[in-house]
Protein: alcohol dehydrogenase
Organism: Corchorus olitorius
Amino acid sequence: MDSGKHDTTGKVITCKAAVAWGPGQPLVIEEIQVAPPQKMEVRIKILFTSVCHTDLSAWKGENEAQRAYPRILGHEAAGIIESVGEGVEDMKKGDHVIPVFQGECGNCVCCKNDKTNLCQKFGVNPLKSVMVNDGKTRFFTKDGKYPIFHFLNTSTFSEYTVLDSACLVKIDAKAPLEKMTLLSCGISTGVGAAWNVANVQPGSSVAIFGLGAVGLAVAEGARVRGASKIIGIDINPSKFAKGKAVGITDFINPKDLDIPVHEKIGAMTDGGVDYSFECAGNLEVLREAFLSTQFGWGLTVLLGVHPSPRLLPIHPMELFNGREIIGSVFGGFKGKTQLPGFAKQCMCGSLNLDEFITHQLPFEKINEAFQLLVDGKSLRCLLHL
């Protein structure tokens, strides 16, 4: 492994990575080769990374994301730039950065429109497994003979990784990188859904279905916005204590009810909440979230990943009742444009990030981090590289 004592610019770096060889198989820590960045690419040294449910779903093979093997998963991280490729002018060696799976090229019709944070060229694509520049990978086996594929524009389960510059955000060097790791996905996705997508208003009511890291981040965002009632719904009651710490005022365990959840919420809120957030990736839950909102103006924000081919459980005529439903990607944040400002807000203490890091482990114990998430014992397990 490169010790960092000499300049590695333009050279192949040998380092450790957690390689996925097949769905459900334990990740293997082994030495790989990481090629130098090409035009408009950046190679970074990962200092911290964490495991998200999207990594877990891909690892399990629950969707089509894991067609390419071997592969390096991971998309929540923070690190330091080791070198930049030709044409990269907004970042340089030594900058502190966080990768983002939802890129921002700055030039496409979507990037130029303030109504969306999507990007035509570097949007999230779980089937993408190579770099945009030349359709090839930057990872290889130790002997350099066989390619190892990329994941979600990022591949952070490696000591070094190469990203398109559009998928990398420079942040203040004073920001604590271990906490900034959370901004790569979970915190930005949840808080952004409350702020940018729903635009939660002071005094409003909110229902959050699924109290994983994203759902609790929604609660934190709603709390900061001044929501008066925040209802958390989960079948795992161990999530409730953590929910209280981020502002959830009421809790519902569907297993304890003899009526549908939406009826219970309707009784608690004089007809329904102003905003509901579906963070579970379950169609039955999505319908309950939709029906839990207020007749006339309720808004449901969809955040959960739904790999099933089943369609929305909503009749078209139900949309004439004034309720709306909308999907949210990365909390509506334009990564390169808006995330640096969001990071500064987090540095100022407006959001409580400490509650989300429930475990910390050395990188070599990444399979333990996966198991903690499988068992519902962790929100985010921070891995130190």
